Amino acid sequence: MSPPTPAERASGPARTAVDRPRWPAVLAVAVGTFSVVTTEMLPVGLLTAIGSTLDVSAGTVGLTMTVPGIVAAVAAPLLTVGVGRLDRRIVLCALMALLAAANLLSALAPDFGVLLVARVLVGVSIGGVWSLAAGLAPRLVPERSVGHATSLIFSGIAVASVLGVPAGTLVGDLADWRAAFAVMAALALVVAVAMAVLLPPLPAADEPIRLGQVPGLFRDARLRAGLITTLLLVTGHFGAYTYVRPVLEDVAGVGAGLVSTLLLTYGLAGIVGNFLAGARAHRDPRHTFAVIIALLAAAELLTPLAGGTAVGAAALLVLWGLAYGGVSVTAQTWVLAAAPRAREAASALFVGVFNVAISLGALLGGRAADGFGVTSVMWCGGALAVLAWLTVMIAAGGRAPGAHP
Fold first, then answer.
1. How many DSSP H helices and E strands does the chain contain?
2. Higher pLDDT, residue 398 or 64
């Protein structure tokens, strides 16, 4: 028998037909993505409490968002290369156990330095889990169900981004911020066990990739456009969203109790947005992305103008959540469609860019808030969203990626 060709090797396990869907395994992966992204976002709703307890400013506490994002951006490609042919089930379980340990360390941190060390470990887990989980749907369900399974996996990210923050804020209000991290430690440990039980063996789907090959993926114009759009959009979003609590308190004059309710409303809208976008993005990621970006830009730019009342702020947060809920699944669909034979490597690049954007957004938002007032973060976020929309429109001049290139 002759050895397999490169094309046959590239089509490996990820392209093998799945006889029966493994929906419990898909759900376990979704809860895993929820856990890592909720942990990453948790400080957003706890900025004031953490700063008060550890005696640091709100801008300094913002580093708890910046650090894990930077680490995740570096860890994603390094782990993708480093794990080689290791079974992905084992790697995912180990990363979830690391997340549990990092959250426990955060809950017990006696000072801000120890908290930052814990956030470094969080970044490692984020980079690994997200990059490996993104391409698992074709290996867990039949082809006809891949779109739904991908939406479910990314619903973990969407729910974390839009619902994890208000949930953490609520736990922090009822107890304290340390309790919120302790709850996430327990959840991460449960997820590690669930993955060990529910996931099938997951040998490496692609040929092992060398670190030097990863930057070469940027030569694909479609992939490059998707990554640049993601960088601009997510930077703008987190530049504004990291400081959404002080914005609501300053612009709309709402109290702490109402902030949690408003963020919960935002979260529910985001869950709806994830599934709406997931169904559409599988067929037309470019058009879906353009609509999402336009809605997100409108929500951010209108908040200083029309968000001066609780009703106005609530309406804009619903629009914001509906739009941002679809960002992760749509952007990832674009990236995977642009690199169908290097899914893990492309996902690693996507995770790196996404987390650089989170860190950059939190950092720039902090500088804008300290230098020009808290409302300025909305103008900056909206301006970057407009640039992201223009990038998608320019990409339309070429061949935009489809779900099945």
1. 19, 0
2. 64
Question: Is residue 140 classed exposed, middle or buried when 0-12, 13-18 and 19+ CB atoms within 10 A define those classes?
Answer: buried
**CATH code of the domain in which 37 resides:** 1.20.1250.20
| Domain that residue 190 falls in | 24-204+212-395
By the 8 A CB rule, do 276 and 217 touch? no
Q: Count Cβ neighbours within 10 Å for each residue of 263-302 and write b for 16 or more, e otherwise.
A: bbbbbbbbbbbbbbbbebbbebbbebbbbbbbbbbbbbbb
Neighbours of 142 (CB within 10 A): 13
Q: What is the pLDDT of residues 123-165, one digit of tens each?
A: 999 988 988 887 788 888 887 777 788 778 878 877 776 677 7
Mean pLDDT of 99-124: 94
Tally of domains in the chain = 1
Alpha-carbon distance values, 317 to 141, 241, 245, 323 (Å):
34, 10, 12, 10
Type of residue found at 59: G
Q: Which of 227, 217, 250, 195 is nearest to 374 (CA)?
A: 250
